[in-house]
Amino acid sequence: xxxxxxxxxxxxxxxxxxxxxxxxxxxxxxxxxxxxxxxxxxxxxxxxxxxxxxxxxxxxxxxxxxxxxxxxxxxxxxxxxxxxxxxxxxxxxxxxxxxxxxxxxxxxxxxxxxxxxxxxxxxxxxxx
Length: 128
Fold this sequence. Notes:
Blueprint: H1 2-11, E1 28-35, E2 38-39, E3 44-48, E4 66-69, E5 75-79, E6 84-93, E7 101-110, E8 117-123
Parallel strand pairs: 1-8
Antiparallel strand pairs: 1-2, 1-5, 3-4, 3-6, 6-7
């Protein structure tokens, strides 16, 4: 009987599920894209998590960890952002000003001790 007891104890850790890779936290980023005081709807925003340096504008979308789009009102939100320092890169189209393609970047820090929710303007321009 003793051997069966130790055998069951040895199997106990193997029965546990794997730890989650991502734990959802109550965080949110909401951005409103703007250019020359005009709202820029339907912009695409990419997030690179835990990035200390600017990731650049030339990386493919697969390089980034998450993405979201702004709506017709130029505002877009994404929830459950992990804690850390992240970079947001955005691309949009301004039909009123030439050149029409606009882009911008914004470093953000999400912290449950500090700011877990961000709601701000995201400025884009033609040149950087």
